[in-house]
Amino acid sequence: MTTYADAGTTPGAHTIRPGAFGNATTLRCRECGTTIPLGAHYACSECFGPLEVAYDYPRITREQIAAGPPNIWRYQQLLPVPTDVASFPNTEPGLTRLVRADRLAADLGLARLWVKDDSGNPTHSFKDRVVAVALTAARELGFQVLACPSTGNLANAVAAAAARAGIRSVVMVPHNLEQQKILTTAVYEGTLVAVEGTYDDVNRLASEIAGEEEGWAFVNVNVRPYYAEGSKTLAFEIAEQLGWRLPEQIVVPIASGAQLVKIDKGIRELVELGLVEDTPYKIFGAQATGCSPVSAAFKAGHDVVQPVKPDTVAKSLAIGNPADGPYVLDVCRRTGGTVEDVSDDEVIAGIAQLARTEGIFGETAGGVTVATLAKLVRTGQLDPGAETVIINSGDGLKTLDAIAGKVGPKATIRPTYDAFTEAGLA
To answer: Does the global pTM surpass 0.70?
Structure first.
């Protein structure tokens, strides 16, 4: 098996091998359309707009995809990765289950509902997808350190992926992050740094370090265009698991907004390649009210997202200045969806409702999505008769603090049958 060290030394001295990024051809500015060669770039040199990966796809068939491995590398031709990507040590994320959620649908008055449950990934969140693609880019570009600022799930995914690849990780998180996420990052024994401040403070520090430290790949900073492409695989899997068709409605939690934007990009690519029929779909964004700058902008009819200071139990979504916020607005408006927000109490109720009805214990981001779905139905913003998919992006075991003291034993009794019956438990 190929090792990470075989890929090169420093980015400045490293020559990119032919086919390193598969069918990707350039990086293109989302604002002005300027194209630049593939490399460790994330901002346009002309207008400083964000860059994304552009492709020249060959003919790709459903049969080719189905013959691939049972993880995201089955979509290798649709990602900026080489044909031999699976030969390098990685966490092999993806192909998580799509759960038919009939009991939750009945609770909410929906006709057909599915939960895309990404808690089944190696570190129990969708972040394993984006990190796997970012790790590949870092390797091909010759970086030796995998790093990130994170609200928790990304820290887990980066630390695990780096350990699997045999390289150093450096991850930075807000100092008041949930203890579960601290421990599930620290266990990989990379460099974990707690930073006093919010995620936005952590992100600013990471951007500064990325500009100073050669050989460091900050997955959501200097290799962000590649990293973000990993979220497309959610769209690919949903379509494939539905028998190669699109759902009519998708509800997606918003942190930076990249996941929602890239799900839309993935859908459009499937349509362009003829892998799915071009049927109408709506995308809805979900935020916690305590950190809802995109929802506020949507409701106000604005195109610019005003940063906020987060104050919510949903810490994995607590990004007050979301980089992809304006593009979320574009996607939701273009597809006919909306962006909505819910209180912390509703978030916790959403966690419990998903667990009670479907046996899925989602983290706070999942609670945001379920509660937002309920609100969209209640307010008439979402069609209850249309087939709907919601994203559960992580595992509830990571956010136990949110439900601590709110759930527990129905009773504490002596170890006798009489005590059991006296407590009314029979």
So the answer is: yes
